[in-house]
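The record is passed on directly below:
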Amino acid sequence: MEKMEIDDIADDGTYNLLNQGNIHGRKWRHRYVSICLGLLCIVLLAGNIGQLVYSYQAKQDNITCPASTDAPQAAYNALTQNQNDILAAENRRLCSERDALSAEKQQFNAMLRNLTEHNEQLHQICTSLRIERDKLGFSINNVTNKINLLQANYSGLKTACGHIKTSYNELQQTFKDLQSDHNNLTADVSLLNTKYKNLQTEKEELQTRFSLEVKRVQSERNCSFLRKEKDQLQESLQMLNRSNIEIQTNYSLLWKNKELLTTKYAELTKEKEDLQMRCQNLINSTDILKTKDKIGEIPSELLCPTHWRYFKTKCYFVSTVKKNWTESRRACISEGADLVIINNHEEQSFVHGMLHKDQNAWIGLTDSLTEGVWMWVDKTPVTKSYWLPGQPNNYRGQDCGEMVQTDSGGKWNDDGCFSQQLWICEK
């Protein structure tokens, strides 16, 4: 564009020089005509003076010799008449040339005025093009900065995903170790039960032997021996019972640890899915920003899915059914979006315009983490708010934000997160 401007300026300079040369030539032509007219007037005046002088001399000669002056007088009159005719013709020719030059001067002046106006218009167009070029350069710089910021966020999220995968693998390995310990303890319990049954069998055998020995040996000696054996068996049984209780206690603890690990695993899996979805959304947003110049002329209704509305590189959706705040956010995430985040007054007016009269809708605003500290769903704080007068008031634990349709342009209100409302998604 700068090269085009330089070419235009050079063409204008060349044209001005040509105009100045033409004007300079015309000025010299007018001066030449003026000089010729002046000389002609001097010649005519000299001829008239000569004629007067000659007439005076002829009168004097007529007084002295009137008979001899008729022929020279006739010749002089003829010569004077011829000169007068030539001078009159030359005068008419010069007047005609002067009129033609005057008409040509007027035409050139008109052309000069038109070209001057055209030059001013071209200068105005050039100035507007420079302004538009500066605006486009500023817009390109802003888009480049946003792309760099999104790439940095994507790198951070990718690193966080790597950490989460590492933690998941460690938890999975810990779960496998606990499962192995549980299997070992179960095998030990089975072995102890087997030993206990064997001891019971041995006891029964010993009792049978004891009854046989009663018939063959003395009863007191056998009774003493059997008492001792019984005491030993009871001690063994008590030890086995204590071991069984300890094993059952350990088994209960291991089962509780397993349930806790299963719960944590489910939570980490859900977090992983959410982070993967956010990463995909960031990748999609980056692709949209990279192809902004290519889609600049595409109608806005083709940039968003069906029933979504386009506004400043983002898509918005208002539900037709009602859910609580948590379920509404899940519905937005399932669409690759999240509850709307309002960053400026223009977006506030647009979101308000999506609602009909007396409609309320959930937005991505909550203070459920810290009471009184309102945050957006992307963990950023609220910088510009549009609360209703007297809100938020945390009436009966109201921790979620909603958009209220009003005649004054839409306001925010805090409501219970369990309330059933419409919701607005953004992606």
In short: The chain is about 70% helix and 10% strand. The first helix runs from residue 2 to 64.
